Amino acid sequence: MLSKLKETLSQQEQGKPSLPNILTILTLVATAALSCCYLTIAINPRLPFNPFPPATHAALATVPPTSTNVPTPTPTEIPTATPTPEPTPTPIAGAYWTTEKIVSSYPLEKIEVAGTYEEIGQAFGEWYQEQRFSPRPLTADEQETAHAMLDLYTEVHTGTVEQMRGIYAAYDLNLDDVSEGIPVWDDWWSFLLPGVVYNPFCSVAFARPEMTADGHARLGRNNDWNSSMPQTTLVFAYPEDAYPNVVMTVGAPNFTAFDGMNDQGLALGVAAVDAAGYPTGTHPALIDLQVYHILLETCADVEEAISLLQEIPFAFSPQFGTHVLLADRSGASAVVEFLAEGVVVSRADTAYQVMTNSHWAGPADQPDCPRYQTAVGALEDGDGQIDTEEMMEVMAAVHTSTQWTIVYDLQDLTLTLSLPTDNFADRYEFSLADFVSRIKTLRVF
Fold this sequence. Notes:
By secondary structure, this protein is of the alpha+beta class. The protein has a domain at 36-79 and 202-442: 4-Layer Sandwich (Penicillin V Acylase, Chain A), CATH 3.60.60.10. It contains 10 helices and 22 strands. The strands form 4 sheets. Strands 1-18-17-16-13-12-11-10-3-2 form a 10-stranded mixed β-sheet, sandwiched between helices. Helix 3 (117-130) packs across helix 5 and helix 4 crosses helix 5 (158-170).
């Protein structure tokens, strides 16, 4: 899957018309900034603990690939418990589709969807209509940008174009016309199809298999914001010809990822950082949250994800940049940041890796972050016995107006979620492996 993307990306620098930066012309610039805090920790019990591990970082082009020839453990019994009974699937435009509220007192919806990208898009288009998202005319500048973005999507990830086409079909609109856009969060973050603009800010943690009692790699993440966010969704998706995946996202479900995992055992968590002058050039570019979602659909491990991040054209909000902690079931992890000198990769030589809203490279100010220090201390207290509940406690130690805490198990492909409605006491358990098995049994494709 990655090779197809890289083949088309190599054409991006050839013959493309010069355009203003996508973030300066695409729809409305959001006036409110999302303030989330991200922390990512990777743990390897074979290595010594160090509260402030030295970062090994270099320009991406000089980073040697890390061997991933670690045997993948065979999943044993997969927990499939969910907080509510399984809903009855409803066919929508040929796609498998289910939706349910996880708890009645919090605006979080669980969605399961499978099919071709266009079928998935049409299903989401009908869901968008239920959310009362109404098309509006695009200005001349927005139409110019939309055409440029569609050309870029066609080169980078045709699945995005097909999914947008399905959404427009649900509204009886023609995507190729692009005279109208569909605002899915136009009054705050300015998500607008067929382009996406946003303003981001959270904590993520990854523990390597060797640091855990059962040998499972785990990634945890807090999403911190001062109130619940509209269209918060937990999306299980199985697109045809792409890796099945699960993501937590806000605003534009199935186009962006704040954190997530795919069926290959690749997981990621995103955090906002100060804009660091990453050169975006004058060509059209995808926003970062879109790219992170594409990673989960097309990459099997950390090295493939880093390779794609090197190739894909990026753009950021003027107010915030982001960085991402990548981790896979072999225990590999890396923080990828986008600085003035380009894409920079930072790795840890300890049994864990932690990422907050502070840089690893460049300013390298993460040791000064109290949440970083607290998370490292909590991991050390785990003494090599970090299970899912221990990881939840690590994340609880750094709660800051947290809207959700989630822990991904990269070996058995399960995830455990907690919410602020009961002060994060209850645990909601889900299984990506179970979702994939059910879709295969139903023979959706």
